[in-house]
Amino acid sequence: MAVRKRSSRDIRSESRLDVLHALLAQGGATRNQLARGTGLSLATVATVVSELLAEGLVAETGSSTSGVGRPTTTLAIRGERGILAGVDVAETYVSTHVFDAALTELACTDVPLDERVESADHVVEGLVRSLDEALEAAGRARSELLGVGVALPGLVQGRAGTMSVVVPAWHWRGVGVLDLLRRRLDVPIVVENPLKAIATAELWLGEGRRVASMVTVNLGTGVGVGIVLDGTVLRGATNSAGEWGHSLLVHEGRACRCGRRGCVEAYVGAPGIQQTLREIAPDHPLTGTQLQRDFIGALGAALAAPDPDPAVVRTLERTATYLGAAIADLVAIINPERVMLTGWTAWALGDRLLPGTHAEVRAQAPRGTTADLTVGISTVRGNSAAIGMATLALERFLGDAGLLTTRSPLAL
Amino acid sequence: MAVRKRSSRDIRSESRLDVLHALLAQGGATRNQLARGTGLSLATVATVVSELLAEGLVAETGSSTSGVGRPTTTLAIRGERGILAGVDVAETYVSTHVFDAALTELACTDVPLDERVESADHVVEGLVRSLDEALEAAGRARSELLGVGVALPGLVQGRAGTMSVVVPAWHWRGVGVLDLLRRRLDVPIVVENPLKAIATAELWLGEGRRVASMVTVNLGTGVGVGIVLDGTVLRGATNSAGEWGHSLLVHEGRACRCGRRGCVEAYVGAPGIQQTLREIAPDHPLTGTQLQRDFIGALGAALAAPDPDPAVVRTLERTATYLGAAIADLVAIINPERVMLTGWTAWALGDRLLPGTHAEVRAQAPRGTTADLTVGISTVRGNSAAIGMATLALERFLGDAGLLTTRSPLAL
């Protein structure tokens, strides 16, 4: 791949993204407010707004008078333009969220999956069922879908036409899941890795467009990061950037399910945290908890007790040390302004992990990189992989309408 | 720092960089050849060329006839437009290289520094002496300098006006080296970290503009990387991106001179390689070699012998394993197309290290990230930090002339 040349088309596309993000963040806004909020000229805002009005994605919702001068029109994203589905296929469930075009969630459904082994047929079956249930719960029809975004728990590599999906947990290697999906759903589909989806959610709805560099750290069964540089998610040569979960924390350390030893994931993924507890207290009852979310939830409950379980306290302390050391490596290499923790372990334990993690990052990262660094918990709540996939589906819809140039290589 | 907005000015700046790089790569070229080589339209090339002709940086050097049609003019960078100095201040020496405006080296000088402790005054003194000696060797005067670029062996942080320099080896913390430099040299100066300089050299003269993502890995006393994404060197929030040398290879491992334990540098920096030899053969005579370059040179000589020293062979094998595991982490996080080794350890031992390193990268990096990954030795020879600093000085000169918009925050 050669260096990507930018064009004036890319600049117009960026302006449209800026306006959309401002409308999402502020709810409604006038053209003047949009110009102030985005730093774009009023003329550019007026052009962009007229394009978005023509596409039906933005509507004039009323007028506001500021006391002097003539009233100005308020604009908002037109939720009724259509609906979007974001599907988070994880190793243990398929979660489908239906949104209107303004990214307001209308309904969601979860279908459990067996976390040990799944055939592509079975997963696609679960996905279609979950989607139809979510649409029914929202009282909407497939025909109203502007697009469906599907996050798959593995590497989604290559470009349209030559894309392959590798899901180590299910022993998938480039299986024809994309063909299966296309055959079952007659709507535009995008597929992505959840790490890229989560970073995209943070770009559209969180901190991503306020800073020049940000890393989203996803903590669940697997762990990984999304790297956001100047408003763009870093994809890498084969769309695999962000596999921090399989970077090294301990040379020749714990066996990781990827086959390597000492990966970050083997220490701060949910099974890794359980292993830490096992090392601290081999006979602790929680070492036997089967389901990972139950285990993480139980840790949270044990910590919230009036007399917190000391083995759990030590497990959290050690996890914060591992997490901080691993994040310090990211800070050394990427030097971001923000690190945002996300994912269900972050929701359940983030407040408990944050102080120790932050202290370890400060102790371990190169001098001068942490003074202005914020480490926080993402403000995008709900299923951020599903939200991110819905925004990617919206990006694709806008791309097909000629309004966005996108680097996403993953539309089917 | 908010997301950087691109403008049509940036696009024109990129076009000028494309044309300059093509002229540097091809020596001379016609406008048609430049259009083919850069992918720019002939009209854009014509505009850019006329701007560079007006600035005196490009000249019409002759005409070529292709058999049919009228003869076309050949263009080349006009070396005599002025001179540039690139200064590599390392922990053990100051090396100054003088170039003409076409980046052809005219002369160079080395001044040794005591690698243990240096005052800023003393370093600036050595730098000025080295620069004057290099100018004299080239038969040129300070007044001809378009700019001087200085690589400092530490973190160069912040923006113009608030910039600070941290050199742990010399216990420098934001010392007024910049003021000292400005006072002694009445020419435009840029300062940078050598990692950014080396990546810039690879961008202008090596592989950097042929691929969308590249990592340059510098191996010397210290080690670190330059990350090049879409033709731009990643700087990070405080210009500290690329401090891979102080990312973790072995949790709780060898003490690193940065104060942390287990850093990559403690294993693949020259003193780290010596420590590996010490662990393999505590009484080996080379464990006592004082100067690091002598040590690395001696390893190369021992390997080239008809009957290579088995302890040295094992040291190289283990170093390749460490290096490959550490590069695999970069590949997991950044997923680049190219990894280019550079620096004096790479020149001396690279051919010996490469097969083992590449095998370890393939074994350790996430599936699918290494099939198309090239790991090689940089083709930019000579002192790439000095070359990079001269190109940064040229960038600054072109920026002052209104021809380039640059992200470099480091001009004084």
Automatic annotation (TrEMBL), chains A, B:
It comes from the Bacteria. InterPro entries: ArsR-like_HTH, ATPase_NBD, ROK, ROK_cs, WH-like_DNA-bd_sf, WH_DNA-bd_sf. Coiled coil: none annotated. Gene3D superfamilies: 3.30.420.40, Winged helix-like DNA-binding domain superfamily/Winged helix DNA-binding domain (1.10.10.10). Signal peptide: none annotated. Belongs to the ROK (NagC/XylR) family. This is ROK family transcriptional regulator.
